[in-house]
Amino acid sequence: MRPRLAGGLVLLLVLLPLAAAAQPAVVEGRVLDATGAPVSYANVRLVGSADGAATDTTGRFRFRTRQHGTVTLRASAVGHETAEQTVRLAPGDTTTVQLALSSSQVQLDGAVVTGTYSTGPSETTTLDPTEAVTTPGAAGDFLRALQAFPGVAAPGDGAGLFVRGGDVTETKVLLDQATVQYPYRYESPAGGTFGAVPPFLVDGTQFSMGGFSAEYGNALSGVLAMESQDRPTQARQYLNLGLAAASLSIDQPLIEDELGIRVSGNRSFTGVLFRVNGERDDYATVPQGIDGNVGLTWDYSDTGQLKFFAFARHNRVGVETTEGAYSGVYRSEETSQLYNLQWTAQAGGWTVESSASGSIHTTEKGFGALNLAPTDASARLRVDATRTTENWTVRTGGTVERRRYQFEGTLPTQPDVVRPGAPTRSVEETLWATRSGGYAELVSSVFSPLTARIGVRTDHQSRAGGPTVDPRVALFWQFSSHTRLRAAWGLYHQFPELATLNEHLGENSLDAQRAQHVVLGLRHERDDLLLRAEAYHKPYRDLVVRTGDSRFANTGTGFAQGVDLFAKYGAFLETRFNGWASYSLLRSWRTQARDRGRTVQLEQGPAPFDLTHQITAVGKVRVIDGIRVGGTYRCTTGQPFTPVVGRVQLGSGAFLPIDGPVGSERLPAYHRLDLQMSYFWPFNRQQNVVVYAALNNALDRANVVDVTYSPDYSERRDRTTDFRRSVYVGLTLTL
User: Fold this and answer.
1) Element (H, E) at 277
2) Secondary structure percentages of the chain, helix, strand, coil, to 5
3) Which of 113, 135, 156 is the last residue before a domain boundary?
């Protein structure tokens, strides 16, 4: 494995001077009124782009953008005339501007510029932290907020990102170029209860769900790329206290216009929340945890920046649950750490972003015959860069990753049969894997309204076969100033999870899985209105499927196809009303394992997350100054499941299930209404309090999220949501 690692490092060093993923330009400044006083919560945006920010209480703003060249910056605020200024942006540069707004007589529900959600460069969704935490039902969580958009299936109460028929492992999460291997807290087959990264650690996001750039590899369905906050420009303290958690954050400039630090910590204590709502009976240990982070940013020159980010968390939970025919207490305790150093610089006309990161994740979990303590540690080096001229942009880059997966404990030979006494095997193994990859991409205008993006990437993993080669092409046709058409095609590979490789006892190797993306989309945006429609077809091959007890093979095939529709109006904090509605139509089939007692049979059927119809509506209204109310309604087709139609008894007395046709039955449809209210009270020039209250699952609907069985599989029961009607209150104090 050492020669392969050395070869990967050589590849990365070769790519270092050439590397390319568009380095953002930084735009910062202040918005003032006609008297020279700062304008708080003004909306500052680049015209024709979703990039921008809201000003703070001193009128200051700062954001990053991948738009380069001559652009128009627009600032607006309720009660003021809109102001525009033309600026020229270069990759890696910081541009400082000052905009003045004159007073106007516009009414509070007047039109303003675009809000925080858009489709970005046609294939991406961008989401501002403020928009995320104010989405009713999102529980202040980025990943839950993203579930309100089309193309993301939400089969239950978790935070998992199931993108266009794929499971959660097919969507990769990055933070400042570093891969977040475990992006969920309280992990489960549905991803987890919450995302691991708190929203206000993040400066912005790009969520790609199909036909995405060659910049991203080892992902079959989607990529969520986040950027941590930049250097603080003023000293601030934030205190948040609610029924389930308390947190403290400190922003502190250390050297003016050069060096700053952000530190925060959070303690969750859901026992109070469950006692208030009478929902504690199922928990032997209520979900609880602690996390902390530190971010240090040094702008050492006009074009150079060093950013260090460290994040650590510890969670534990013990809950009464049922898996198959066994009911018992599932206990889990996990610790996760991520460290990342990012360097941004310019050299020879290239803008280069480099990232060196390390992470370690340990888990102890037990449930019936299952008793595991895996440890996953990784080190990663990534370089991306870009070079832009008037007519074209070149991007290239590379990644080297070294992972160690240590696995020990007892594991049931059949995943769904965890009753004590069921067949198990003991494991105590350490698995090493090295992955290296690189890409090159050209973006150029073919003629005035048409832009083409052509790229190719290659990846190799030491545990798989030969290298993968993924060509990718996208065409963008701007056939009016407000309307854009996108067509994209590409190949995407993803290597098997290390947990699967470690569990596999067969002599055959497990190679990369493959998906093909074919996407056609239309986007129309004018003032406060955004409309988007996208159709896609995604055939799979070489999927890893279980073929027997602790045996797997690349024999799976399948497809996902559908249509996503999205409509949005208004901008948060700018218009009296803002909200959106989305609809997704999905059909997804895959090869799956059908247990026939002691044997396994492979069949084609609806994928586990084939939610045929999904409708979501989100609305937020400013009732009077300072008070806002909102609601989210979600309705989805029931999730497919494979029924148990018989049983086989072992000599130990345990039973093995005999499955019916895979995915042949569905759970009832899922309906949920969440309501939220907040009150903003500024009590000094720079101090304010936000008081908020939420009523989740307001209709108290007992949504069915799974089916369970009696110990002998003779009786089937529905398992309903753990989240019935509940209230949550809290406040955020800014000093």
Assistant:
1) helix 270-277
2) 5, 60, 35
3) 113
Would you state the pLDDT for residue 623?
87
Question: By residue range, what is the domain housing residue 62?
Answer: 18-113
- 494 and 620 belong to one structural domain: yes
In eight-state DSSP terms, residue 121 is: T
Pairs from 6-13 (Cβ < 8 Å, separation ≥ 24)? 7/436, 8/400, 8/434, 8/435, 8/436, 8/460, 9/381, 9/400, 11/398, 11/400, 11/436, 11/438, 12/381, 12/383, 12/398, 12/399, 12/400, 12/436, 12/438
Same domain, 300 and 435: yes
* 145 part of a folded domain: no
Do 221 and 76 share a structural domain? no
Which residues, in sequence order, are bridge partners of residue 288?
269, 316
Residue 655 in contact with residue 713, Cβ under 8 Å?
Answer: yes
Tokens read off for 105: 């007589």
Give pTM, 2 decimals.
Answer: 0.80
Domain boundary among 113, 133, 152: 113
Each residue's pLDDT tens digit, 162-212: 999 888 899 999 988 888 888 887 766 556 777 777 777 777 778 888 899
pLDDT of 629-651, one tens digit each? 999 999 999 999 999 999 888 77
Looking up residue 213, the CATH number of its domain turns out to be 2.40.170.20
Instruction: For the beta carbon of residue 294, count every other beta carbon within 10 angstroms.
Output: 15
Q: Kindly state whether residue 596 falls inside one of the protein's structural domains.
A: yes
Token pair of 167 as six digits: 């499971």
CA distance 495 to 506: 17
| Residue 459: predicted pLDDT | 96
- How many domains does the chain contain in total? 2
CATH code of 80's domain: 2.60.40.1120
Closest C-alpha to 291, from 211, 182, 389: 182
| DSSP at 571 | -
451, two tokens: 């832009």
